[in-house]
Every structure is written in structure tokens, then in C-alpha cells.
Amino acid sequence: MDIRFEQVDFTYQPNSPFEQRVLFDINLEIPSNSYTAIVGHTGSGKSTLLQHLNALLKPTKGSVTIGDRVITPETNNKNLKPIRKKVGIVFQFPESQLFEETVALDIAFGPKNFGVSEEESLKLAKDMLDLVGLDESYMEKSPFDLSGGQMRRVAIAGVLAMEPEVVILDEPTAGLDPRGRKDMMDMFYRLHKEKGINIILVTHLMDDVAEYADYMVVLEKGKIHKKGHPREIFSDVTWLKEKQLGVPTATNFAFELMGKGYEFSQLPLTASELADELARDLKAGDAHDE
Amino acid sequence: MMNKLILGRYIPGDSFVHNLDPRSKLVASFYFIGIIFLCNNFLSFGVMFAFTLFAIFLSKISLKFFIKGVKPLIWLILFTVILQVLFSQGGEVYFKWGIFTISEFGVQNGAYIFIRFVLIIFMSTLLTLTTPPLSLADAIEYLLRPLKVVKFPAHEISLMLSIALRFVPTLMDETEKIMNAQRARGVDFGEGNLMQKMKAIVPLLIPLFVSSFNRAEDLAIAMEARGYQGGDGRTKYRVLHWQGKDTMVVITFALLTALLVFVRS
């Protein structure tokens, strides 16, 4: 599903002493079947931007087109449910949204709100539990008896159970152990590849951006500073360092090597790309020696 | 939702009123509410009105905010005023219909009550707009201290008060966050009939309670780990300073009271 921002401005509490303008003239297009990463410093407006993606917030100026619906400042708050069904948001620390007696009921809560039958939604709950890597024995447990990491998985399953076309992830792996993080990110990537789900990822981890995303947006102080393929944006290492935005580990390493006179055909973004480049050069070097 | 409420919020600033000792401000506000009941004619209300406007002027905060502060309460005020106008008797009768009478005294009482409400709201808005919540808690702790003689837990109360005040914004954020998360999962807040509305609140309330319990537990552990053992033998980091201008406020209020006694009929 295409999402398009046209000259979107957003102000919190307009016309009050606490007025605060957060987004300035945002023009952005997120095409279907893409994996978009949104990065920026804390307070750059990322979270505000993503709440526009399923009409939790409405622009104070401009328009947001979500699929076939156009959201303008005048849009009525009614009948937004179809959008919410298509665009699922996994908020930061989503485990705080759990409330039902059992894990199964909590996961089924979303689908039921959108009119899926009780049986059907419980079946969905089982599938989703499996998808996020928990087995069936968790179905009847209370979500509050689980560990933090497991609660996170249940909460994410609850969002995925609505079968959204677009999944928005606001730092989905914050506070998880490295293993859980990798599993989770790989699972989202699989969903994206296999089911063609649009993923929009808000993160501070540039390694994740380099690894998974095919489109990247850099926000700063409520304005879009750069957008494009991560390769393009990460190629300007000096700029990123200046802005203190962070560079993927592999790219940084390559950049240091370049400082020592090493040359790359293209700047590697991930560890495997870096390894490939180095291996190729070493082989070429061997050939040269002989 | 809460954004419209001006009463109870703090606007940082640097003015005469901002820099007053919170104790003098708190006591003065309560005293003001007390002496406003001394007023019984238009001249005395005029004196109080002028005084309030002067205090607002000293705070360097635009009058607009104060008027906004009255807005959420306007229906309550109007309701009271109308009841007063319709059911008071005495003096010249302008209009009579069944049990309803609009009389000279009724209209007068209505007007008094209106001014009284507005002035009280202005004054309490002034207090909260110019005083950070934590200073207020300090002031309350200080003022409650004499009650220790009768075994009143002044420290505990003020600790709870300052923790509660500190967590109001955090809990508001949390509420907003959970509400959004549940809306994204298809919950409609504030729609449908009363039963549906109440049902929609469950997915908000339970997570809020659970997170409050967790937060309380974490906070208690963190406090113990930092050596908190109760109120006895603690020193204070934020010390309140009574200055010359606070004495001036007290004197002004004494003069104001005298003037009121003089002009009231």
C-alpha cells in the first residue's frame, strides 16, 4: 500500500501557550512493498511522523494519503478503522499494551475489534504465537507471568494478528538481548519478503538499517534532511559523523581502512559485504603475487 | 483532551510573582479565597478585581491564559449563577413565573457569585502557573510541619505528594501511549453507548494499573538502594528562602483586608 505525505505540517496543541511545531513541510513517498527506515536524533519528530501513518494524528496542514484514503486536517475521526486495520503499529515497549487474561485472548483482541470471529481470531493467535517464536503452551498463560522478552513477542504477535499490509516498528528491539533482536528482525524481514508486507522501521541502530532497509529517511528537527537508498546516504560518512547519526559498523571499519589507503569498489554496508570485498581483494592480491 | 486545561500547569518565567517564596504564594492564595467572602458590594468586588489584575500584571503572563483557564469551568459557573438568579428573592421583582423569580437581589447575587468564581479561578491559576509543582509540595510540607505535634505524618504526606506530582506528566504520557497503541489495535475510545464506552476503557486501565505497580516497585527499590529510610534525620536540598518581597506580600494582604473591611457595607 502506498503512503504519501504532501506538505505535511504538524503542531502539538495549536493556538495555546504550549504550542509546539514538530513537523515542517514533510514530502515523502513510501511505495508498496518497500522496507523503509526512518532515522534521526531523539526529538526529531520520528514518533510524530509515524503516528500520521495510521491517522492517530492528523496533519495540521497538508495531506497524508494512505492507500485510497486521504487524511487532511478536516478529516473526521470516524471511519478510520479500515486504515488502522491495514496499518499496524508496534510502539516502543509494546509489552505495556497487554491487558487480557490470557496470551491467546490478548493476541486475538486486535482481529476481534476488526470483526473477525472468536474462533477465527484464536486460530490466528496460535499462528502468530508460532511466528514470533513462542510455542502453544503459552496460549493459556497470563501475559503478566511472562518475561519481558516474551511479553514483547506477544505484543508484536497481537499487532501482526490483524494481518496489516503495512507494519510500523518503533524501535522494536530496544531492551532485547542480541539473540532475541536478531530473531525478531529476521522475522520481520521474512514477512516483508514472503508476504510483501510494507515495513517502516524507526531505529537508532544503523546496522539494522544497512542490513534490511531499501529506503531510508533522515529526519532532523522535524524536517526531512535526506532520503534515498541507504547506500547513497551511508556513502557520505563524514556528513553522518558530523551529524552524529552513526554509521554501520562495517561501513565505519571500511572508512577507517580507506583512511589507511585501502580502496573499495563500493563502500560496504554490512559485515558480509565487507568480508566479500576484502576476500576478493585478497584473492586478487594472491593472483598478483604469483 | 487534557491539553485544554490551563489550571494546574506551570509556565516557567522570571517575574515578581515567579520569584516569590512558594509558602507566601500558597498562603496568600488561600487567604485571598477566604477574604473574597468579605466582599458584599460592588465597590469591594472592584477592589478585589483590581488587585487580581495587578497580581496578574506582575506575573508577566498574558491575561488570555487566565481567561482560557476559566473556560472549562464556565458551565458550572453559569449553572450556579442561573440558579442563584432564578431562586433568590428580595428587593424589587422584575419578573415572576411560577416558582421562578428574577429579582433585584437575585441578579445582584448572581453577579457576585460570578465575579467570586472568576477571581478564585484567576488566583489559583496564577498560583499554579507561576509555581513549579515541586516547590508547592515543599511549601505544603513546611506548612504541615506544626501538625507533627499531633502525630500527623507531615513528611510522608509531602513525600507522597511530591512523588504524585512528579508522576502526573509521566502517567499522562503513558496513558496517551497506551491509548494510541490500543487505538492502533482497533479500539474506539469515546464512541458508542455508555456500556461500550466503559468496555473500551478496560484495555487502557489494566495496563495503566499494571505499569503503575511496576513503577512503584522499581521506585521503592531504587529509593532503598539510595539509602532512604524515612523522614527522620534527613536534610533538605531545596531550601526555601523567605525574602523581603514575601513580607511585602503579607503586608499588602493585611492592607487589602483592612481596605475591604472599610469599603464593605
From TrEMBL, chain A:
GO terms for molecular function: ATP binding; ATP hydrolysis activity; ATPase-coupled transmembrane transporter activity. This is Energy-coupling factor transporter ATP-binding protein EcfA2. SMART domains: AAA. The keyword Flavoprotein does not apply. Forms a stable energy-coupling factor (ECF) transporter complex composed of 2 membrane-embedded substrate-binding proteins (S component), 2 ATP-binding proteins (A component) and 2 transmembrane proteins (T component). ATP-binding (A) component of a common energy-coupling factor (ECF) ABC-transporter complex. Its EC number is 7.-.-.-. It comes from Vagococcus carniphilus. One of its GO terms (cellular component) is ATP-binding cassette (ABC) transporter complex. It is an enzyme of class 7 (translocase). It comes from the Bacteria. It is a peripheral membrane protein. Belongs to the ABC transporter superfamily. Energy-coupling factor EcfA family. Pfam families: ABC_tran (PF00005).
Automatic annotation (TrEMBL), chain B:
The keyword Nucleotide-binding applies. It comes from Vagococcus carniphilus. Keywords: ATP-binding, Cell membrane, Membrane, Nucleotide-binding, Transmembrane, Transmembrane helix, Transport. It is a multi-pass membrane protein. Transmembrane (T) component of an energy-coupling factor (ECF) ABC-transporter complex. Unlike classic ABC transporters this ECF transporter provides the energy necessary to transport a number of different substrates. It is found in: Cell membrane. This is Energy-coupling factor transporter transmembrane protein EcfT. The chain crosses the membrane at residues 30-58, 70-90, 110-129, 246-263.
